[in-house]
Amino acid sequence: MSTWTFLWSLIRYRPGLYIANLIGWTLIHLAPILPGLLTKAFFDRLEGTAAVNWSVWSIIAMLIGAAIARIALIAYGFVTDVHTRFRMGMLLRRNLLSHVLREPGARAIPVSPGEAISYFRDDVDQAEEAASWSVDVFGMLGFAVVSCYILLRIDAQMTLLVFVPLILVVTAAQLATARLQKYRAASREATAKVTGAISEMFANVQAIQVAGAEARVIERFSRLNERRRRTMVKDKVMTEALDSVFANAVNLGTGLILLLAAYKMREGSFTVGDLSLFVYYLTFVTQLISNVGKFIAYYKQLTVSAGRLASLLQGAPAAKLIEPNPLPLRENAPVRGEEAAEGAATVVEPLERLEVVGLTYVYPETGRGIRDVHVSLTRGSFTVITGMIGSGKTTLVRTLLGLLPRQSGSILWNGRPIERPGDFFVPPRSAYTAQIPRLYSDKLRDNILLGYPASEERLMQAVRTAVLEEDIARLQEGLDTIIGPRGVKLSGGQAQRTAAARMLVRDAELYVFDDLSSALDVETERKLWEGLFRVRADATCLVVSHRKAALSRADRIIVMRDGSVEAQGTAEQLLAESESFRKLWHGES
Ligand SMILES: Nc1ncnc2c1ncn2[C@@H]1O[C@H](COP(=O)(O)OP(=O)(O)OP(=O)(O)O)[C@@H](O)[C@H]1O
User: Fold this and answer.
1) What is the side-by-side order of every strand in the sheet holding 408-413?
2) Number of helices (H), then strands (E), in the chain
3) Going from the N-terminus, what domains does the chain have, and what CATH number goes with each?
4) Which member of 163, 186, 341, 496 has the lowest number of beta carbons within 10 Å of its beta carbon?
5) Which ligand 1 atom sits closest to the C-alpha of 395?
6) Average per-residue pLDDT in the chain?
7) Is residue 332 within 8 Å of residue 15, measured between CB atoms?
8) Would the CB of 421 count as within 6 Å of ligand 1?
């Protein structure tokens, strides 16, 4: 999509508001013409050469009136500008967010969260800025045409002698801003690297210390800072130089006008009023050139920003970004037909049988993943997925739950195919504990509930089943303990059991645990499975594990190897039939 189409679609999103804004800013830019003419009339009146017969006081009153009118116009312009640009920005953010929320959870954004935030914030701002500046162009050009006409009529020679060199100087300076953009981008990037390094250092103090890597980390940090210093100096020197050209252009222009005017006034062909008009318009003409330049720069930056925003869509058409949609996400989520039936998890058809047929997902980056996997679970069964490291266990679970976009195969819930597993496999149909728990800097209680309206009794039951009760008793504030950023105040096992409690507090037909045992001792894991079966006798469980505590309890074990199912059966059958399984089983002991 071209930058122009992108900008035009943004403009057309709220045409009424845009036109109101356009009218406001055109009038604001045209408004200085009037005080210029009044100032001329004032001095001409004092000199006695005025063409009109207004008194000095009435001219002063008109000047005050013009100033008040311009203030009122500017106030109006800011209101319309804020309304227009924020709506455009919110449309972009809304469409982006809506797309990200509909992407499979494990691949929702193609960049780091920090970068995604900067796209949402800075690139959307850039688009707003370009759209907002587009309204100024008309008013500024209008002012240029009218003021040139007036000045040319007063004194064509002087107009050309003053304004042509001025326009050339300012335009040349403006062209240099292309270089400024380059330096600005480089300095921003260098700053982002320094900030990133600081946040990495703070997050990994322990890892740096145990690896004895302080000196190297500091040396790398110094290098990043040195690069930042160099790019910043270039950026600042360029910015200051250009600013001084713009500031001095007005002074130079005034000097030129004074020199020429003195000569012409002696001849009697130029009045004091003419002089005041030339000086008055000079400032606006200089501003105008630099503002048109600014708009061109914003327009160029918009090309980059639109490209970055489109990259967040991961291949979906860029037109999605500017699709006209009502701004609130919740009320207008596209829920239709089959999607609505699948997505609305209020009426749950009890799980009798879950089938996975020919499921395939291969990571484009590595060519690894799962291929043609067939699995079947029945109500109340306990199925364990096992296999060597990297054999595809997590990928299978994530593709089944719609956290990764399957490339082929189908998933059937009681024989009915599920089109959008990401929307379907949510509580109360299914609940999931990921291999690496995601916790927040909040109370332990809130980390478990995540806003779910469970009773205290239900919460305590989930805590007990997740074998977290004793740990909570040892915490000073119990369930109300704040667990620090990413749950740093908890041990690995506590964090995993907190995630398990988060899952268990929710009603679900299907519970999916991804390698819960990696941070649990054998005894705690045994207690967890026992507790789960005590409170949820008919729960269907799909568990990734290579622990005997899980394997010996399994109704069916699925052995994965290189992304495919190598063998399936009970522990007894597999011990007799599968060499890989025997290795896994004995490997543990
Ligand atoms: N985000 C990713 N991008 C690219 N390749 C990946 C990604 N995640 C996993 N893989 C690859 O896919 C394969 C299967 O990984 P997966 O995490 O499913 O294995 P696993 O059996 O769950 O391993 P583990 O026991 O270590 O958790 C591995 O070879 C891995 O290198």
Assistant:
1) 369-378, 353-362, 408-413, 416-417
2) 21, 10
3) 3-322 (1.20.1560.10), 353-429+508-588 (3.40.50.300), 439-502 (no CATH)
4) 341
5) 18
6) 86
7) no
8) no
User: What amino acid is encoded at 226 in this protein?
Assistant: E
Closest CA to 360 of 371, 376, 349: 371
Ligand 1 neighbour 8 (Cβ under 6 A): no
pTM of the model: 0.74
**What is the best residue among 368, 403, 516 to mutate for testing ligand 1's pocket, by most ligand atoms within 8 Å of CB?**
368
Residue 327 near residue 90, CB atoms below 8 Å: yes
For 25, 139, 281, 322, 497, the CA distances from 21, given in Å and listed in that order, are: 6, 11, 24, 20, 56
The one-letter amino acid code at 237 reads V
Ligand 1, closest atom to CA 369? 12
Could you give the dihedral angle defined by the CA atoms of residues 103, 107, 109 and 112, in that order, rounded to the nearest 10 degrees?
160
Query: Whose C-alpha lies nearest to ligand 1, atom 3?
Result: 363
Ligand 1 near 392 CB (within 6 A): yes
Residue 342 near residue 420 (C-beta atoms within 8 A): yes
Atom of ligand 1 nearest to the CA of 546: 25
Instruction: Tell me the angle at which helices 33-47 and 272-311 cross, rounded to the nearest 10 degrees.
Output: 170
Q: Which residues contact 302 (CB under 8 A, 6 or more apart)?
A: 3, 6, 7, 126, 127, 130
What pLDDT sits at residue 292? 77
The arithmetic mean of pLDDT across residues 193-218, rounded, is 88
